[in-house]
Amino acid sequence: MSKTAVPVPPAIFASDLSMRYPSRRPASEDLVVNGVSLVLPQGDIMAVVGETGAGKSTLAAAIAGAAETGEPRSPIIKGGVLRVLGYTMKGLSERKRHLLTLRVGYLPQDAGSLLSARLTVAENVAAPIYERDRRFNQLDAGEAVATLIDSVRLPLGILGRYPHELSRGQRQRVAIAQALILEPALLVADDPTSGIDATVRGTILDVIRELQAERQFSALVVTTDLDDVRRITDQVLVMHRGTVVGQGRIDEVLDTARHPYVEGLAKARDFGTVKKPRKLSA
Fold first, then answer.
1. Which of 68, 135, 207, 231 has the fewest CB atoms below 10 angstroms from its CB?
2. Phi, psi of 59, rounded to the nearest 5 degrees
3. How many CA atoms lie within 13 A of 156 on its CB side?
């Protein structure tokens, strides 16, 4: 008699999710995420697209475990459901939050600037290992760090350097390595190419796509650029003022646009301002 297969929960499941930020003024408690629903199967990549203020970063932060922490700028889940790797995020205990964040790699906006200036590249990348286990074997940690630095297309010679000695694009790739050092099941990358020179934007996106294919983690990538979407996935969630205005395969979403914002994206594509990506050098 065969055993019944246990269904694998999606990496991210949201149903009618609404969120706001804490405020002492009721008039300021507007929803920044309003009625969002999405499903990201394990092992897939989804891009979240929208203008500044669309609620993308708030959604990303909540998925990464930064909601309802009690911090002044921590978003609050007002309604609906959000589950990440099987954890229900509303009312999540500190113990479960800790367990979840060990399995989620989070790349916040301009993550390269958040690297510790006092630590070398190697120490920055290894920091999450020692935060989890101070007694972790140093040789094993060093090997893991070197492997990831090579995977993000950086020379091993930078391991002893400090963040200020690197370019912005190099720092961003170091931050990607740091986010992946614990081999997470899910990567949440919030606008990973923001402010990065056009000559290396493609390299950063290629690094994320190649590592995802190699390590088979799930990924949610926030961006404002459809060229970025096409480089890493064909699955897109389009947000506008906190709501979802398009979801699915990118060309199908644009071809069936019914919201003015999505119609604008479709027109940009049709007039050739959204182009197929080309291979860029590192």
1. 135
2. -60, -45
3. 8
Residue 13, token pair as written in the block: 């499941």
Task: Give DSSP secondary structure letters for the chain.
Answer: -PPPPPPPPPSEEEEEEEEE---SSGGG---SEEEEEEEE-TT-EEEEE--TTSSHHHHHHHHTT-SSSS-TT--EEEEEEEEETTEE-TT--HHHHHHHHTSEEEE-TTGGGGS-TTS-HHHHHHHHHHHH-TT--HHHHHHHHHHHHHHTT--GGGTTS-GGGS-HHHHHHHHHHHHHTT--SEEEEESTTTT--HHHHHHHHHHHHHHHHHH--EEEEEES-HHHHHHH-SEEEEEETTEEEEEEEHHHHHHT--SHHHHHHHHHHHTTSS--------
Tokens 């669309």 correspond to what residue?
A: 54
